[in-house]
From TrEMBL:
NCBIfam families: TIGR01244 family sulfur transferase (TIGR01244). This is TIGR01244 family phosphatase. GO terms for molecular function: hydrolase activity. Pfam families: BLH_phosphatase (PF04273). Signal peptide: none annotated. InterPro entries: BLH_phosphatase-like, Prot-tyrosine_phosphatase-like. Residues 2-110 form the Beta-lactamase hydrolase-like protein phosphatase-like domain. It comes from Aliigemmobacter aestuarii.
Length: 142
């Protein structure tokens, strides 16, 4: 696993496996957000498999599939709701962690400076600069 902590309570990661969930729980994560559609991955990593293992371990599991290049405002609202409902640290995953970073930044527009929403993920190689205009507009809308 390659956990990248954007904040003390929100981390992103490339695809995880059901076996990784016990480690994540031991590391203090309480909520797992799956930002990857099932159509991108083999069956042993599908949402239902991950959800069942997370439930077995007492982890909250949220499904919010973000299609690369086609993130919607519903994705942003769902991520924001999952973040707000979390009872502890969150790990969000997708193919590389990028989509989980992009949807996190959009969910925090207006709550954090746009420069931070772009700069924090950049520390891990995620380029959110192309989203500056969207983030600024969302921040201005409140």
């Amino acid at each position: 696993m390659d956990i990248r902590r954007l904040t003390p309570d929100y981390a992103v990661s490339p695809q995880i496996s059901p076996e990784d969930l016990a480690t994540l729980r031991a590391e203090g994560f309480t909520t797992i957000i799956n930002n990857r559609p099932d159509g991108e991955i083999p069956g042993d990593l599908h949402d239902a498999v991950m959800r069942a293992k997370a439930a077995e371990l007492g982890l909250d599991f949220v499904t919010n599939p973000v299609i690369g290049g086609a993130m919607t405002m519903e994705n942003v609202r769902a991520q924001k709701a999952a973040i707000e409902a979390a009872r502890g640290p969150i790990l969000a995953y997708c193919a590389s962690g990028n989509r989980s970073s992009v949807v996190w930044a959009h969910a925090h527009a207006g709550r954090m400076p746009v420069d931070d929403l772009i700069g924090i993920p950049a520390r891990y190689g995620y380029n959110l600069e192309p989203f500056r205009g969207q983030l600024t507009t969302l921040a201005q809308q409140g």
